[in-house]
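All the exercises in this workshop are built on plain-text protein records. Sequence and backbone structure share a record, each on its own labelled line. The structure tokens are whole numbers drawn from a learned vocabulary of backbone shapes. The record below serves as our worked example for the rest of this section.
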Amino acid sequence: MEKNDEMSFLDHLEVLRWHLIRSTMAVIFIGLFAFIFKSYIFDYVIFAPKKGDFPTYQFFCNIGKIFDIESDFCKETLPFKIQNRTMAGQFSASIWTAIWAGIIVGFPYLIYELWRFISPGLYKHERKMASRFIIITSFLFFVGVIFGYYIITPLSINFLANYSISQEVVNQIDIDSYISIVRSSVISCGFIFELPIIIYFLTKMGFITPQFLRKYRKHALILVLIFSAIITPPDVVSQIIVAIPIFILYEVSIYICSWALKHKKTTKII
């Protein structure tokens, strides 16, 4: 193993500070562009799942027609309006949306800065894995973001918009509440899809084994189905569509865990 010159605790903090500064500047830089084009982002990205012609709704509507099933996905508009009830509400929504756009778009660079910070503590051959680590991690994150935006977000919005306890209640959703649904669905799925990466490192550190994951596979399946049932409308098709990719991730994680265990002797993380 090649070691750099020994650094004091304060030296490590100084290095970390500059990594955080560069990461923050990247988020701000991308966020400025997002703020400038806020009208496009809100009209064609944030508010798109509110419209009846959203691709996901059209897909489920066509499936319903094939099986001659009446579906809420075939509605031209969803039964709710978005409102703003505070003076700074729309401005605040613009700022935070720009920041989160900076984090999502700038994710590969954030991972790059993270890798640069931890790389001095790795073996030489491990540091050569930087490009693969960044590419795979970023790919999984963006796949999760797309899954969250096109599957979780519209299914959640459609279900909650059509859920009613009485005809006396009219849905007038606050803008913060609506954006929170979109943001949490997208960001959470982005990180959920990092499961194989997390499993890899936990395996390298000796916390997880393939036997453990296989032993609790049935429990994981139940949890995935429960999670799918919570975030989707009460129909089997939607639940299955959400559950399959997540469970595939679990199975991929078992394979990665086995692979990491086999290479543990030659690839160790310090």
The two ends are 10 Å apart (CA to CA).
